[in-house]
Amino acid sequence: MSRVQLDLAVKNISFAREYTLETLSGIEPDDWFRQAEGSVSHLAWQIGHLAMAEYGLTMLRIRGKEPADESLISKNFLRKFKKGSTPVFDAAEYPAIEEILAVFHAVHEQALAELST
Prior knowledge:
mainly alpha; Four Helix Bundle (Hemerythrin (Met), subunit A); about 60% helix; about 0% strand
């Protein structure tokens, strides 16, 4: 991928990220595990899935798994939110919202740092 293509990808990732964060700012904690009509998942699963996908597409696919990745996004987190996982609507089955958001933010920061090199 050329530097121009990479810069465009980072710009698009950043735009989508800002839109997501703006949308999240208006969501009450009680709504994170609520199933919207016609939906098969909930917000907590979607945000965890976004973190897992960003890790997979921007780090795992490009440079492979590294030992430090476990502290960034645990195997359990990956398992819970991976493609093909089935969302459940019991909040007790998931990490706390704060942990999901912490992983979501940490993965994004690391992805941008690695894409910038």
